[in-house]
Amino acid sequence: MPRPFSRLPEPLAFIRHFTPSWFAMTMGTGVLALVIAHLPWRMPGLWLLAEGLWFVAVGLFALFSLLFLLRLALFRDTVWPMLLHPVQSMFLGAIPMGLAVLIKGLLLFGVPRWGEVVYALANLLWWLDAALALLGALLVPYLMFTRQHHALEKLTAVWLLPIVAPEVAASTAGSLAPHLAAEAAQQLLVAGFVLWGLSLSLAFSLITLVLLRLALHKLPDTDFAATSWLPLGPLATGCLGLLSMGQAAPLAFAGTPLVSAAELARDLGLIGGLALWGAGLWWLVIATLFTRHYIRDNMAFNLGWWGFTFPLGVFALATFELQALTGLSFFAFVGLLLAVQLAAVWSLVFSRTLAGIWHGELFQAPCLGGPGSPAVSVLSEQAG
């Protein structure tokens, strides 16, 4: 059996080669905690399991943030190659998305433990998250348009990652607003709707390009298998954000001239949420078929596999939200199936990640051209 970290290419490689794609692990773990906590049925131990997973996600986010900051401080020569890399730069969007998931978990698990002071902390963290999400949604596309090299045949849904981050922040705003004072809630929701519109409109444009690429050039290489699931993310998050912000709006704007608009947002939110859920259902089915195709090709593991988890988890959360609003048992049944599927996928990806960490083979940044898995050579070729 290989010794732990025996495949590290150099001392401190886990810092020099640390990439933002690790934050996808926080996203996947955090969303599993939220899905378990939102199950319509209460079973002994489920809440403790969900809370434990959330604490794991918090620990991972803190560790990854430290490693990323150390890379920026100690290895400044690696920053520009990361920003210019056509794939690794996209994962900068995973940082605010991971933080948004933790904020939503803070509202669920933090208040019973530490009291209502958590709401003030969550509000501060949300504005930080929104700023990071907006920065990524502007910086990465700007680099795409001015410095990076892209081609239609190499396009994958990974382009969505920096664009979807504001939308994830918006969905969290709907959960936080009911716990704030009226003025703070109004500011939060207005910002949330702006972020939602900014993100979803661009996401639809990119999904259109992804469909064109698939029709003309067929499926990407097996190293990008998980990207087939990424378009499900903005559709599911768009549904969840529209539902949660729509439900929070009437209370936040009660007694103001915008109360009628807030009530309209609540009603249209349900209709729009159902429409987006339907679009997500189509992509869920097509992504499942794509994955069956990839499994036959013996796809090799890489950190991109975490892309299987978050879109599926957010779609499950949107499904449970629809069940709560409509009372239809159909959504509860579908949500349960999605939750079971998510738990199975997370267990597989988490175990494979631990094995990769043990051997040190995952600490190889594609933008630095280090040796490693097939994904490294593929991504390095794209960067050139």
TrEMBL record:
Annotated signal peptide: none
Main location: membrane
Organism of derivation: Ectopseudomonas guguanensis
Family affiliation: Belongs to the tellurite-resistance/dicarboxylate transporter (TDT) family.
PANTHER family: PTHR31686, SULFITE EFFLUX PUMP SSU1
Name under which the protein is recorded: C4-dicarboxylate transporter/malic acid transport protein
Residue ranges of the TM segments: 21-41, 53-70, 91-112, 124-145, 157-177, 189-212, 224-248, 268-291, 303-322, 328-349
One term under GO cellular component: plasma membrane
Record membrane topology: Multi-pass membrane protein
